[in-house]
Amino acid sequence: MNAKEKQILRDYSLVGVEAKRAVELGLADADWYQTPIPKDQMRALLVRKNGPAIRDSIIWFGLLLGSGYLVYLWWGTWYAIIPYIVYSVLYASSSDSRWHESSHGTAFKTDWMNNVLYEISSFMVFRQSTVWKWSHARHHSDTIIRGRDPEISIPRPTQIKTLILTFFGISAAVPEMKKLLKHASGKIDVEVATYIPKSEYKKVIYKARIYVLIFLSVIVLSIVYNTILPLMFIGLPTLFGTWLMPFYGFTQHAGLDENVLDHRLNSRTVLMNRVHRFLYWNMNYHVEHHMFPLVPYHALPKLHELMKYDCPKPNTSIYDAFKEILPAILKQQKDPTYFIKKELPATAHKTKNTQKAKIVGDVDQFSNGKIEVCSVEDIIQGEAIRFDFKDKTYAIYRTNNDQFYATDGMCTHGNAHLGDGVVIGETIECPKHNGRFNLKDGSPKRLPVCVGLKTYTTHVENGKLYLDISDVKNAKDDEMFSFKVVSNKNVATFIKELELEPVDKELFEFVPGQYIQLEILPYKTKFNEFVIEEPFKSTWEANNLMNCSAENSFHIKRNYSMATDPKKDKTLKFNIRIALPPANESVFAGIGSSYVFNLKAGDEVKISKPFGDFQIKTSEREMIYIGGGAGMAPLKSHLSYLLETQKTDRKISFWYGARSKSELFYQEYFEQLQDKNENFNFNIALSEPEETDFWEGNIGFIHEVLLENYLKNIHHQKEIEYYLCGPPAMIQASLKMLADFNVPKERIAFDEF
């Protein structure tokens, strides 16, 4: 690769600069466009069935066993290659669509059937089942968003050699084998750690060891019986039979737009014949699947008919799709910004935020904590509805056995309303990630859901359904404290320092590194209402940010770390970065950060008691702090407490990274701490300094600067305590660096911002 090619490469890793930018631009776990579908028609499409998947699975496994038997019978003859081609394609390519649909839990009505098929097909397609379930959940949350989607198969510019190897399974098998062996050794891959919760680590390691054991057993069998046949049935089909998978898979997103919040523009529907649709399980209807992932594969053709008025014209065949894909890939070799622009028909909805069906409560019908929702007959059995009252949103459910339940409206895993979900038994399935909650107590029922819901009591009186919002179960609200805004000033271009003082009581007790929850009230604002001081205001105006807007309709909470010394300071300070809206997208800026940026001196807010375990460890070890962006807050709390209150003599260094000089803040404070404390060292690095910065200091990512200037020159890296706080990309890159030094996990504390 020459220097010019390197310059135009985009960063698709989950721990690079694009990961940070995706969060800053509001592209992470965002709200996506959906084609309006009448609720009764959608309800019919969402019906789960065992029959179609049982029929198709019997045919699939029958063809696998039949072709495999012919391979065994004809082994040693030239014509054994014919059934082997069939076997390997069914094994390595067709298993991909079975893996995909069963991962959503929609192939069968019966859950254990989905789980069994998922585990079998995961092994056949050579994907670690637990890892890829979370990976695919992220793919649906952040489809083709650079730095967020772990399943972008054709990055720009595409390396032609890598593209060719994809048809032989090598480009996917090699990195997957590295991850498999790493997990089997008891370590979690650094990119995997960005989208899978720690509670799943043991399961990942356990299954990786099972995979390795199976492969080793097959190798042993081949050696003992002096034949390659066992490997031809398990292992090698991944290489020999993968070629059909990219023919199908590349049609999904290749050549289309990136970083957009409309599946019509980054996904492709391709019309295929019955044979292809059987092998591919209707995933050729890919726009439809991404927009409505709860719809089972066997109902996608009907969904296509309902949606086609609102979507680009589908490609008429695989050949027709590749006629536009291949030229686009070649153009992207020279110009990574090029993409195929899908034209929406004249009948399509152009606006992003279509209004979804909901019931709004009437305040006149509110009495003794109860609010009338609707007539009982307005909710049919097996249905979920959205119900809004005052500044909160709820989901109301009626099960098939005629029981009514109510929970908070928003899924705890992602940005999706459960009123759009599917009631299955006494569970609700999220419309975005297929995770499930138990309706009786709000507890998580199926991954990727990990955090439970608040539930509420419902009553039926005289044919009317009532919601008792005073009777909250399972997640009692914590006491909230009243604080007044002392000041709210810019310390960097896009970062404010919010200072609060208690209204009635003394400041509550907390320890360095903890966070609070700030109550975000309903509001509507434009950025020109913010008080932005110079020289930062000029940058905002130059980038046309003052016309951006934000609004919030409900009482919600956001977590913010404190930047204060609990023993010395009498007020609380926070560092909060504005979450800007994506370019060319008609969406609002960050709800929490916009609310904070609009606070003025004298305003009153409510915050919770402190939480969090990002705390100072009790030891005499050397301490290294690594930070970036708004991750400064808890690090400042730590360091001011250690050096000004505790007056520790522990060796401490602080390594802080920013994009340019205008993003630096508290520099003078830490330089003064350095002058007063011989045991403290402060270091700065800029990753993209401006020409006007006249910067003569360190340039690069902060973890790389730390490595080059200190860590690689010492021998006791494993004996140091590390405290990391900042953007996810910085955290994961730092964790990878520390993993290379085999630093024990118990010596690393981190908090992502």
UniProtKB/TrEMBL annotation:
Gene Ontology cellular component terms for the protein in this record: membrane
Superkingdom of source: Bacteria
Domain Rieske positions: 371-467
Gene Ontology biological process terms from the UniProt entry: lipid metabolic process; sodium ion transport
Keywords attached to this entry: 2Fe-2S, FAD, Flavoprotein, Iron, Iron-sulfur, Membrane, Metal-binding, Transmembrane, Transmembrane helix, Transport, Ubiquinone
Pfam family, one: NAD_binding_1
Cofactor: FAD
Keyword rRNA-binding: no
Annotated ranges, domain FAD-binding FR-type: 478-617
GO molecular function: 2 iron, 2 sulfur cluster binding; metal ion binding; oxidoreductase activity, acting on NAD(P)H, quinone or similar compound as acceptor
Name of the protein described by the UniProt record: NADH:ubiquinone oxidoreductase, Na(+)-translocating, F subunit
Source organism (scientific name): Wenyingzhuangia marina
Origin organism lineage: Bacteria, Pseudomonadati, Bacteroidota, Flavobacteriia, Flavobacteriales
